[in-house]
Amino acid sequence: MKAMLLRQIAPIDSGPLEWVDLPIPEPGPGEVRLRVRCCAICRTDLHVIEGDLPRQKLPIIPGHQIVGTIDKLGPLGIDTGPPRLAASGTEAKPGLVLGQRVGVAWLRHTCGQCGFCVTGQENLCESARFTGYHADGGYAEYAVARADFVYPLPAAFTDVEAAPLLCAGIIGYRALRRCQLRPGGRLAIYGFGSSAHVVIQIARHRGCEVYVVTRGEMHREFARQMGAIWAGEDAHDMPVKVDSAIIFAPAGELVLPALESLNKGGTLSLAGIYMTPIPQMDYERHLFYERDVHSVTCNTREDGRDLLAEAAAIPIRPHATAYSVADANRALQDLKHDRISGTGVLVI
Ligand SMILES: [Zn+2]
Ligand SMILES: [Zn+2]
After folding, report:
1. pLDDT tens across 151-174, in order?
2. Closest ligand to Cα 125
3. Where are the domains of the chain?
4. Whose CA is closest to 295, among 272, 261, 265?
5. How many Å lie between the centroid of ligand 1 and the Cα of residue 302?
6. 76 pLDDT exceeds 80?
7. Parallel/antiparallel/unpaired status of strands 129-130 and 107-109
8. Fold of 170-295
9. How many angstroms does the Cα of residue 176 sit away from the middle of ligand 1?
10. How far is CA 67 from CA 37, 89, 128, 312, in A?
11. Pick the CATH number of 2-157+318-347 from 3.90.940.10, 3.90.180.10, 3.40.50.620, 3.40.50.720
């Protein structure tokens, strides 16, 4: 199969992904294989490629927002939990059949047994493994995943629309839960990329006012088009106090002004997997009056299912810019340099 492979950590501007031929992967016990249709790109892919995250598997095929159809089922599961193949070999678990369109996200494996897994916090599992980081992802013609970690995709979305929901959407959804925004409340969003453009649609649907701080007039104009009441460049210009806030930009210096713009009792969630250092805080100015900071770590499968259901019901309209998968270096360069509105999607 054709795939975009990363052999060594390197700056994306050096074009480190190589278009190579690799054997088609075989699904293991309890796994399914997808014929990939498309895969959205994510800032986390940049963090993997450029080495901001601790190095894991190399070489690696990145990509963790995969849309494809199931083209092969692995042998009978051994220890991967609920999914079991039917005698006919055509069904991996109820509702999962050959030819079915499904999505694969960042969370690809949890142990199901640790203290976090058994208390509904599998996003914190000690043995969690991630797609396109610990195992090959979706910048390729085929990908494998655990049957119980794939998401059936609502018919409301085209392939290219569905892909951004699988990380940008799911993480945005968890960040929205973690910032405890009440229906009709005021939300501030810092950084207006692919997660934010999904979150704003959900928040607006729940009757909330949304204020956006983001770099680049293109992103501010996009935010206004998506229903932001106000969009500005400088976090210190926030015109109102908000009830909840989410920082999507990986910029620690945003934390202080974001806290200052919170109402008493407000909650700020930090959605990124990586953030530059946060400057020193002043207790009275930034934290007192029961302002809370919640980080966001990955997601549970329940977050994913709930996001897909709510996104289909609204319905959310993800904005995507399509690239050929062989152009993944250019797509990621555009992401890094803020040249994409919405989400970049690699079409296979
Ligand atoms: Zn666990
Ligand atoms: Zn991601």
Report:
1. 999 999 999 999 999 999 999 999
2. 1
3. 2-157+318-347, 170-295
4. 272
5. 15
6. no
7. antiparallel
8. Rossmann fold (3.40.50)
9. 24
10. 6, 22, 21, 16
11. 3.90.180.10
